[in-house]
Automatic annotation (TrEMBL):
UniProt organism field: Serpula lacrymans var. lacrymans (strain S7.3) (Dry rot fungus)
Pfam families xrefs: CGI-121 (PF08617)
GO biological process terms, semicolon-separated: tRNA threonylcarbamoyladenosine modification
Designated name of the protein: EKC/KEOPS complex subunit CGI121
Annotated localization: Nucleus
Family: Belongs to the CGI121/TPRKB family.
Highest taxon in the source lineage: Eukaryota
Length: 198
């Protein structure tokens, strides 16, 4: 798990925990749990929502750690400016990742699905929250792996489809050179996330 610190943001948004899970075996149950938690009444609902208070992101659609970090930073920025488009800073990350402004589409594409086998789990919090990794492991059944494992997980075809990059001249010109093509796609995708505004 990696920890990123942003002391220039409000305290409750200043620490980010990011873990990459592979071999996830409970994605369908996790997705059902998230949906159910949204409808539960307090106090039971509050307890359950806190237990799953993370962003669950399909790792296949992340091109690089910079891509993910840019979406996280944008979500924190929007929250600190009180301009969230979604209900929470964690769902805002999914919205930031999506090339359109459709919130439902963002959650459906970038969030956990019944078939997700690799997930980034992100928790944005204050510095005094400890043992975040244990909380993640209580929710996600899988293995935490180094983040450079992402290179083996990314689904470049889906990313090109969602971002409509199959007709992008620079991408077409680099066809056949996977390293160059993927670098171009990553630059486009990161820039798209960085320029997203509310």
């Amino acid at each position: 798990m990696e920890i990123y610190r942003y002391p220039h943001f409000p305290t409750h948004l200043s620490v980010v925990h990011v873990a990459l899970f592979t071999n996830v075996s409970n994605s369908a149950a996790l997705r059902s749990r998230i949906v159910k938690a949204a409808t539960l009444a307090a106090p039971e609902g509050d307890i359950e929502r806190e237990a799953i208070n993370y962003a669950f992101i399909d790792a296949r659609l992340i091109t690089s750690m910079l891509h993910l970090q840019t979406a996280i930073y944008q979500a924190i920025l929007f929250d600190s400016q009180k301009s969230l488009r979604t209900r929470t800073v964690h769902s805002e990350i999914l919205w930031c990742l999506n090339p359109t402004n459709n919130i439902s589409e963002a959650i459906r594409r970038y969030g956990v699905s019944d078939t997700s086998s690799a997930l980034f789990v992100v928790r944005i919090t204050s510095p005094d929250l400890v043992d975040v990794e244990s909380g993640m492991k209580c929710v996600v059944e899988g293995n935490i792996v180094p983040q450079n494992t992402l290179q083996e997980l990314t689904d470049w075809s889906s990313i090109k489809k969602y971002y409509k990059l199959n007709v992008e001249p620079a991408v077409k010109e680099a066809a056949g050179d996977d390293v160059r093509e993927r670098a171009i796609i990553d630059n486009i995708v990161v820039s798209s996330v960085a320029m997203k505004s509310v």
